[in-house]
Design goal:
This protein is an alpha+beta fold. The protein has one domain: Jelly Rolls. Helix content is 18%, strand content 39%. The strands form 3 sheets. A 5-stranded antiparallel β-sheet has the order 1-2-9-4-7, with helices on one face. A 3-stranded antiparallel β-sheet has the order 6-5-8, with no helix packed on it. The structure holds fe (ii) ion.
């Protein structure tokens, strides 16, 4: 894991000082490589929490510019509907997730815009403030995704997701 994670962190580190558009491309290229490399996450970072999807911090940038996490989804688990305070990139690492997208809120209610299967290797990037969605594991097995967030490790609980209470 050390080698693969160090490479991912180094590629993201090099990407985050670019302008927004090339930064997004470079972060996704790093995630493409990381999700294509066969199982390098150690067992403790692939562990399911049966109560809720499990977030494991893999790397926090010492300068507080980004964090890398694995999220482990047991079958049937899902995120709340949320937007993002910071930019975030997602690569599906194992299994298949289902992403439901929503349009901008109208009177505080996000509007359903579509659902897409996200098999291993799927990549997505949302700029800060953009992209309202819910991620769910509707498959029969465990799924794992790798996430890069544009905040330091101390802020991942408070400065990543903007939870939306109601969705149409
Ligand atoms: Fe998200």
């Amino acid at each position: 894991m050390q080698q693969e994670l160090a490479r991912l962190a180094a590629l993201v580190d090099a990407a985050v000082d670019h302008d927004a558009e090339s930064m997004g491309r470079a972060v996704l290229a790093a995630l493409r490589e990381a999700t294509a490399t066969p199982v390098w996450l150690p067992l403790e970072r692939r562990r399911v929490n049966h109560e809720n999807y499990a977030r494991h911090l893999l790397h926090g940038d010492p300068r507080g510019r980004f964090s890398i996490l694995s999220i482990v989804w047991d079958h049937g688990q899902q995120s709340p509907v949320h937007g993002h305070h910071c930019w975030c990139a997602v690569g599906v690492y194992l299994g298949t997730l289902t992403e439901t997208r929503y349009r901008e809120e109208v009177a505080g209610v996000p509007l359903f815009a579509g659902t897409k299967a996200r098999p291993a290797g799927s990549l997505s990037f949302d700029a800060a403030g953009a992209g309202i969605h819910r991620i769910a594991n509707e498959s029969g097995g465990v799924a794992i995704s790798l996430h890069v967030y544009g905040v330091g490790a101390s802020e991942i609980s408070t400065r990543v997701n903007r939870i939306l209470a109601h969705a149409a």
